[in-house]
Backbone:
């Protein structure tokens, strides 16, 4: 086992227990780890750390930097034991989220493509210890990452000390799936030579300064990947609308007949959209994305995928089994890159990636909230959505038109938090329909979004608001004193529906100008 | 004269009057023109068009697409005569702005780097006629642009018909200053081979399909460039703060000793900041920017500039004279590129551009409003600020801490319109000081911005708001029902100052938790 996993004989001397490795972690340290989605993050060391803290009642506070979200063994355990004091750049863990919203953890939300360079530019705290998961250490002391690459190459370069977790649940056959290419700091950068999703430009290992390694830990804890919700009527409807739109765009000459690479956000809705492709006429699909999900594996199975490039593979538990069982076949269709490459604006704009992301809420002007509910309650973070939306050939956002049993309209007068501005949103799709915002003014956008995307339950409210706002003689028809009333209503009456509270407020004058006439 | 300016003999037959050229413009057309800032835009044809409309009481409505803002002969004349029905992507003209805010013109605000590809992808209306200013038509029927490049190469390629204005006020010696390189549509794009601000990668002319040319018009109307406000105490203070910060960053190893290229927004404040460099120890400055302004010419004069790359030269009237008088010398230090290259994310991120832009207002969370006052009154548009801020090595925003005789705080609880989100703003500088937001959580950012950037007159109000918001137990300390109260106060009492109206609203509990303690 050890012989298979650590081929560099000298390094075998560094093998120790997770408990011993965790002892290196001291109060006040900045710890950076591998991991992107609950894939490829260290598990044994953080578990040992939190166990120690729990048992000894120690007071240890650290800053935790990862590629993106990680599993509960890391984010959950550390948050529940009050170990994390600052968290960068993204998370999806219940305990961690709760601690952030409580104010117990300071959260710094960063575009995922920018994080590696923020570390390289010394913008963040120095990394005292890096903890990275590997499937193998090669003859020359290089590491093979596992199910994600994320910021691992950056950690290995910049951390003062390194703990490596060899995870034996990760197949040794992962070797070859990665393509490690990192960027020097300006002014030494040169073009990134990716001209096609399938281009491999780097190595399949990460070079390590062996002197930095303070511990190697063996573990067999599997990636804590999540089950996805089944596609439902609404997500299937959105997929259909999107595919119909694709047809239309191709016919209009706005998208090439052979399509362009797709990026797809993470989660159930995105997964459903991709599922839609399996029922479509399209094949030879290319993905230049972040995360390889179940639907991409399924599309590979039916021969519809040319290449899926990302920074992590993070399917459901069943999907992960399927991937492990047939890894050699999948490996020929999958490339895992560092997130500074998977999410790089240069490549996204060059390849002409069609970006598909989900929104928490959209407003009638075309702004999108991806991260904070009611203006400040963190859900997950902006993640990579900004990297893609801003540089995409076409930037598409999906959201169901209502939430929480129709008590919430996800189409609101003004989003309570802006992650993607009106300038970065081309298309909005709900189960109600599609708003194509390209070339439209704020007034035209508002009408299109209300007419096409809002739920019928909320259409009147939004129209009344807009009608009143149109009277204000502004470029953007907005009423600052009423724009957030829907959230007030929600807070006080548990619904955004009309009647419970002065909602889009005092709209007594219903005989005003008809906004639809004005918009011609 | 004609012989000098039109070397292609065949094309001389197309010479006609501006009046005749303007006759080609019909109701419902989409017209795209050269021009970026009041530089290099067509003047005679739009003047002739508006004169005709005025005299004949004709009803002609067009969509007008330009590189960015243009002069009054175009934007002003067409707006005042109700000719413009839709305007894309940016403007700075009083009459045009008024018509947009009135609802007479529909305005579509687009990132300047995206506009050329939106045209190439057929996302916008087809261009019926392109009107472009040239200093010269070469032997082979190619055109030499004048003081801006902007979207001219895209117009020449995509417009169905072309009108060329030969402007004899533009020196024939402009030839050689331009570097024309355009991008094919995906999937045919390859890396843009700029590794250094000084790299020339294209031609110094724009190829034209001669069959498209329907008229060539001669004019000698000069670029309607604007006088800049003199640097004042506040802008000088901001320059000093920025230069001190640069020193500090270099010492800390976060910016290379030889500096990196700078981008500078347009206008008086930006000009003052650049002026600061003349008094600094820094030389061999490089600019990878949009607009070459007076301060850059001055820096060239004192030998401090290696290269200034942009898409337009737009100094004051005196600056323009200076440039014309010594064009051969300046030409060796200036490159004018298409805006899809000057503002390209690929190059900006590769070169590590330090982006310096101005804000209309900033909020305590780090969001920036660059475009719309009171949420909807358009000032100019987002312009290129987003292209740079999002891809910069370091994204810096400048604003004086108050406006309109201190009745307005430019640091507000929540910006009334978001152009740059918290994720894209590293540094905020006012005359009061500097907030370094890198690696900070929303709460930490709020404290830093209030303490360092807000004007003392408004500090208490902002602190009280924040203190109250901190109680809400959110990742982002926000009170949606109070966040816009300052704008309500401004609207009703002409000031954001406390006392006139319930401002940051009902902050009766002044004995709450001290937010400063909490932020440790």
Residues:
């Amino acid at each position: 086992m050890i012989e298979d996993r650590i081929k560099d004989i000298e390094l075998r001397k560094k093998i120790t227990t997770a408990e011993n490795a965790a002892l290196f972690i001291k109060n006040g340290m900045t710890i950076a780890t591998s991991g992107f989605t609950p894939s490829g993050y260290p598990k044994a060391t953080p578990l040992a750390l939190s166990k120690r803290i729990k048992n000894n009642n120690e007071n240890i506070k650290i800053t935790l930097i990862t590629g993106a979200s990680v599993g509960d063994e890391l984010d959950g355990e550390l948050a529940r034991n009050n170990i994390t004091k600052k968290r960068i750049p993204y998370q999806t863990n219940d305990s961690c989220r709760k601690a952030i919203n409580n104010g117990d953890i300071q959260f710094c939300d960063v575009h995922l493509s920018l994080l590696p360079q923020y570390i390289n530019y010394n913008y963040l705290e120095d990394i005292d210890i890096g903890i990275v998961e590997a499937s193998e250490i090669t003859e020359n002391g290089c590491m093979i990452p596992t199910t994600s690459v994320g910021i691992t190459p950056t950690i290995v370069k910049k951390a003062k000390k390194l703990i490596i977790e060899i995870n034996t649940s990760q197949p040794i056959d992962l070797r070859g799936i990665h393509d490690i290419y990192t960027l020097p700091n300006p002014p030494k950068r040169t073009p990134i030579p990716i001209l096609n999703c399938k281009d491999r430009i780097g190595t399949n290992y990460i070079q390590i300064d062996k002197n930095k390694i303070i511990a190697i830990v063996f573990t067999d804890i599997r990636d804590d990947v999540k089950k996805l919700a089944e596609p439902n009527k609404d997500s299937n409807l959105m997929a259909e609308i999107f595919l119909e739109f694709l047809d239309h765009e191709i016919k209009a000459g706005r998208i090439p007949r052979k399509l362009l690479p797709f990026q797809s956000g993470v989660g159930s809705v995105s997964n459903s959209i991709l599922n839609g492709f399996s029922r479509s006429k399209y094949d030879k699909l290319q993905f230049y994305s972040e995360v390889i999900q179940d639907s991409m594996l399924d599309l590979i199975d039916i021969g519809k995928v040319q290449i899926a490039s990302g920074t992590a593979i993070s399917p459901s538990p069943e999907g992960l089994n399927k991937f492990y069982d047939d890894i050699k076949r999948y490996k020929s269709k999958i490339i895992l890159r560092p997130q500074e490459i998977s999410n790089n604006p240069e490549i996204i704009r060059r390849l002409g990636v069609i970006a598909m992301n989900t929104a928490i809420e959209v407003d009638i002007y075309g702004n999108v909230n991806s991260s904070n509910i009611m203006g400040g309650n963190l859900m997950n973070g902006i993640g990579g959505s900004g990297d893609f939306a801003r540089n995409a050939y076409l930037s598409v956002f999906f959201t169901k038109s209502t939430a929480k049993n129709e008590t919430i309209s996800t189409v609101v007068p003004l989003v309570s938090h802006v992650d993607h501005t009106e300038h970065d949103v081309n298309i909005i799709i709900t189960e109600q329909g599609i708003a194509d915002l390209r070339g439209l003014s704020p007034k035209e956008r508002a009408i299109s979004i209300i007419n096409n995307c809002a739920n019928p339950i909320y259409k009147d409210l939004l129209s009344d608001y807009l009608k009143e706002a149109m009277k204000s003689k502004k470029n953007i028809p907005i009423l600052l004193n009423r724009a957030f009333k829907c959230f007030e209503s929600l807070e006080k009456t548990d619904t955004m529906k009309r009647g419970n509270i002065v909602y889009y407020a005092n709209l007594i004058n219903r005989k005003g100008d008809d906004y639809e006439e004005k918009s011609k």
Confidence is low (pLDDT under 50) at residues 500-520 of chain B. The first strand of chain B starts at residue 15 and ends at 16. Chain B has three domains: 2-219, 233-457, 459-508. Chain B touches chain A through 86 residues (CB under 8 Å).
